[in-house]
Design a protein that fits this description.
With about 230 residues, this protein is an all-alpha fold. The protein has two domains: about 1-110 and about 195-230, no CATH class; about 115-180, Cd81 Antigen, Extracellular Domain, Chain: A (Orthogonal Bundle), CATH 1.10.1450. The protein contains seven helices and no strands. The two termini are about 15 Å apart.
């Protein structure tokens, strides 16, 4: 029984260390996201809620690190109560991360910002002249129209300079052919890919940690009962 408890402590210690590393990576991701947004906003001022996502990642990473430290303290003190709290905390973190992953995954696949949707609506409005919102996305993402540059041709609208490299439409090769809808989804997919991988890594690790903690609590209880019985 003692060997079993010692093995479980070792496994849980390793899992807690892995969680702490994952928390550090999550903080790094949030900081990287904030830095990349600062660079992008120096070119174009658009808000897609990524600032909030970056801050949440940093906060979540910090909580994961603190939880890992708490788990190590609980193991060191051999406290069943603290270990149970640690297991519950891991489950709560698991749920929070799964919710964040679900929201992020759905946003990267189907969601478009209201400003971009408005730009598309203005594009299809024959009476609307000019489209500063869509032009901003076109210049930023190197795209043209919603589906492709052919959108302007089908609507008998003049191609804006934002559809061309260096705002120079005198050369045919400068024209951006890709549509802004797919370009924006690719942009979000690239931003969230690391977060999705890291989230699944942490979710699985936290699940393993919570299960191991429960086994350790049970092992400690059984060991104490045996000692009490024989004494």
């Amino acid at each position: 029984m003692y060997r079993s408890s010692r093995l479980l402590r070792y496994i849980l210690c390793v899992i807690s260390g892995i969680c702490a590393v994952g928390g550090c990576l999550l903080i790094w991701y949030g900081a990287w996201l904030l830095e990349s947004l600062a660079d992008e906003q120096s070119v174009v001022v658009l808000d897609h809620g990524e600032d909030l996502a970056a801050v949440l990642c940093i906060l979540l990473g910090s909580v994961i690190i603190l939880a890992s430290i708490f788990g190590c303290v609980a193991m060191g003190r051999d406290s069943r109560t603290m270990l149970i709290c640690y297991a519950v905390l891991l489950v709560l973190l698991l749920v929070v991360q799964f919710v964040m992953f679900s929201i992020s995954f759905a946003a990267s696949k189907d969601t478009l910002p209201d400003s971009l949707r408005q730009g598309f609506d203005d594009l299809w409005d024959h009476q609307h002249v000019g489209n500063s919102t869509l032009n901003t996305y076109e210049h930023w993402l190197h795209c043209c129209g919603r589906n492709s540059a052919e959108d302007y041709m089908h609507l008998d609208k003049e191609l804006p300079a934002s559809c061309c490299l260096d705002l120079d439409c005198t050369k045919l090769l400068n024209l951006y052919m890709a549509g802004c809808e797919i370009k924006f989804k690719e942009y979000l997919g690239g931003k969230t890919a690391n977060f999705h991988s890291l989230s699944w890594f942490l979710i699985l690790t936290e699940f393993a940690g919570s299960v191991t903690t429960c086994y350790l609590v049970d092992s400690i209880r059984n060991h104490r009962d045996r000692v009490r019985f024989y004494n």
